[in-house]
Amino acid sequence: MKKFVPFVSLLLLATFSLFIGVQSIPIQDIFQLSEMQSLVLWTTRVPRTISLIIAGATISVSGLIMQHLTQNKFVSPTTAGTMDSARLGMLVAMLFFPNGTILTKSIIAFIFAFLGTIVFIQLIRVLPGKNQLMVPLIGVMFGNIIGSIVIFFAYQYQLIQNMTSWLQGSFSTISKGNYELIYVTVPVLLICYMYAYQFTIVGMGEEFSISVGMNYRFVHLIGLLLISIASSVILVTIGGLPFLGVIIPNIVSMLLGDHMKETLWLTAITGSIFLVMADILSRVVYPPYEIPVSLIVGALGSIIFVILLVKGAKR
Amino acid sequence: MSQKSLYIRVICLVIIVLISIAFFMTYQTYGNWQFALSIRGKKLLAFIIVGLLTSLSTISFQTITQNHFLTPSILGFDSLYVLVQTILFFYFGQSPSHPLLMFAVNVGLMVIFSVTLFGFLLKKETQDLFLLLMIGMVLGTFFKSVSTFFQVLMDPNEYDKLQGKLFASFSNVDVSLLYIVIPIVIGIVLLFWLVAPILDVFHLGTCQAINLGINVQKFRWFILFLISLSVALSTALIGPITFLGFIVANMTYQWLPVYKHYWLFTVAALLSILMLVLGQFLVEHVFHMNTTLSVVIEFSGGVYFIWKLLSERGKTRE
């Protein structure tokens, strides 16, 4: 019974999301749409809702896996330099392959995201003592440093304006034909689910994993690869969505604990629900204009994150 | 450290700063003295003001929080200023008839908000440094997203004006603002100078300060008020630079093992002017204007910050 609630609410919200926007498509007309209405519905509304659901799930699951791999509750692709490294990759792609397809850009972004995350993991390995908050702090700083390198080169090649648009996660430009890359993350999510049990064990530490006979290094690497693919695809198709990967897994793990086989799908659904809601907000706050959803996610996310931090510190 | 060698160090620093200023002012002027000096003079004035404000506010902030990692900028003070400025602008638009009133209201709100925020952050007796830093950064992100939110809603023309106000970079400092700011800055510097001995006592810790007859609560609010004012002014002049205060303050502590704030203030102010002048020189003549000063400072500051965190951890290894 309990398991139905999130599913049903996601379905309701997704349906709701389809019928919101400047071009009015009243829900009661669903079987007698005009030419125009069905065009809008199929070329922008449906792709948009699908990408919202996928992106919310992907980012939350990436955050969850990252938290297990680093054994730290506050790490996510945004607080570990993964996103900023992907951004550096995008810049390199723009400089060297200005006419490259979106796939070329994603692959380069992925390579950078992967390398950047590995550098970060190495950086926190040399940290003596494990303060829960030290790791994300270093991550944010590391991200800032990479970010300033990006700005440095972007400034030289007059790409600043162009870059600002990738920083802003937004679903307003999603339409049929330019978002399909996001489906790449669906198999990634499935593989994540297959490895969920292994990730849970990895989250208990290296020594424990080896003593129960698991190839720690290999699983760790798989995890990093999956996260990097997911993050770079999301960055290329949508943009950055701050703190989403931290708050959702934390909320779910507070309610259900840390066994990933149990929590993974719920984390995914909660992420989708959160993002669909944020996007609906972004469309209704100031019609007929849209507020980039990253702002809403950033504002809500940072408030929830501060609450989580204060609570976590009390414990 | 003997008084004599202290004097020698500071005098050396003064000489270095003067030389670099002279160099900055006269390098490659091609005989166009008047022109070059008027442009560079404005920049130099901005460097001196920002350097003074940043270093004094950061050092006193670190003394009352007893923490060498926290700076007003890292706790999101300057993003808060940008937010207040943006919201005021959004609701009242530009009122050219009362630019001073606007500025006063802005600074007043900034002080009220930052004092409240700061009071909340430092309320807990158990001060977890990492928690504070993390919260500060997240709040910074939050303020930035809310500012961006309002900026998105603005009329593009209004937005242009706001951008000009918020990010008057070093190359085009708002002269009209400069003349308003200079007397205020002199006042702030004097006040910091006056309370320097009280700050010296704070090095002993809050309990000792109370024992020695300082009204800690009252003094804290007062210093915080000064700090907010400084951050507001320097952000109004050149926009937010996160790591300048951090770099300068920590360099000062490393280079000058004294506790007296007279010395700390002097050296930090000199160092920050030196950094800004040299940084700008790098930007102009090495990178040929292909980058901005804040990028150079953010990058080096970020690296320095991580390095310092790591080295601190190494020291307190259990």
From TrEMBL, chain A:
Gene: yclN
Organism: Vagococcus luciliae
Similarity remark: Belongs to the binding-protein-dependent transport system permease family. FecCD subfamily.
Protein name: Petrobactin import system permease protein YclN
CDD domains: TM_ABC_iron-siderophores_like (cd06550)
Pfam families per record: FecCD
Subcellular location: Cell membrane
UniProt KW keywords: Cell membrane, Membrane, Transmembrane, Transmembrane helix, Transport
Topology relative to the membrane: Multi-pass membrane protein
UniProt xrefs under InterPro entries: ABC_BtuC-like, ABC_transptr_permease_BtuC
Residues annotated as transmembrane: 48-67, 88-121, 133-155, 181-199, 219-252, 264-285, 291-310
Top-level division of the source organism's lineage: Bacteria
TrEMBL record, chain B:
A Pfam cross-reference name: FecCD
Stretches that traverse the bilayer: 6-24, 44-64, 70-93, 100-123, 129-154, 175-199, 219-249, 261-283
Topology within the bilayer: Multi-pass membrane protein
Coiled-coil annotated residue ranges, if any: none
Subcellular location: Cell membrane
Main location: membrane
Keyword flag Transport: yes
Record bears the keyword Transport: yes
UniProt entry keywords in alphabetical sequence: Cell membrane, Membrane, Transmembrane, Transmembrane helix, Transport
Protein family per UniProt: Belongs to the binding-protein-dependent transport system permease family. FecCD subfamily.
Official protein name in the record: Petrobactin import system permease protein YclO
Origin species: Vagococcus luciliae
